[in-house]
Amino acid sequence: MAQSSSFSRRWRARFVAYRWRRVGLLAGSSLALSLSLIGYLFGLSDGFAGRVLMAFFVWFCLLSLTFLALIPFVGWATVHWFGRGWQASAADRPARSAVAPTRASAPKSRSTST
To answer: What pLDDT, on a 0 to 100 scale, did the predictor assign at position 108?
Structure first.
């Protein structure tokens, strides 16, 4: 249980230390630009803006959850569950062998007969 409490403390410290103002500014400006483009292209008739806003909000939430939660969790889980040694290091990878030239691409030697 001590390990989970230290993990939660570390996670909270990293979560609080994150630059949320920058994330909010980026998210807000992208939302405003995309909604203004959609409004300009399709207009505001027949409840279209409300449907587009809800669809965009759902899409935005799915993307933000993917990039802010799912991808970091997969990285954390692979390191903590499988260990750092699960990836092959550069020294462990097999060296690439040079491809031998084929007969058609081999340079032809010129023999001169005198």
So the answer is: 60
